[in-house]
Amino acid sequence: MFTPKIPPPDTAPTPATSLVPPPTGLVHPPACACHNAPTAPAPVPAAPPARPAVQFTPGLLLIATAGGTAVVLVVGTVLVSMLLATAITAASVALCAVILRSLLNRPNNR
């Protein structure tokens, strides 16, 4: 049941008898015609100049703290307002469902 039907087992190639013959007689030419080994090691490139370290001053830390606090407050306000909008929408949909259910269940009591 789980054996493959295509190709039939007697005609399927095995890994030893692949349909693609291996390349024979393939010779790569040398990369260069000099055939000389380098006599001296290659010069080591000079290290790039080091970047100056950032100096944290009290003023910079105060500005970074104030900026981070402002970002947290703004993102929090946006997320809370989105949650409030979702809650108001859910409440209004639930109220509409209750009103429609009461109208549809008792058509003679209007």
Question: Can you walk me through this structure?
Answer:
The protein has one helix spanning 58-105. The protein has one helix and no strands. It is an all-alpha fold. The chain is flat and about 100 Å long.
Rg computed from alpha carbons, rounded to a whole number of angstroms: 39 Å
- Provide mean pLDDT, rounded: 81
The proportion of residues in beta strands is under 5%
- Number of helical segments with 4 or more residues: 1
Helix content: 40-55%
Q: In angstroms, what separates the terminal alpha carbons?
A: 68 Å
How would you sum up the global shape?
Answer: flat
Task: Walk me through the topology.
Blueprint: H1 58-105
Descriptors for this entry?
110 residues; mainly alpha; 1 helix
Quick summary of this structure?
This protein is 44% helix and 0% strand.
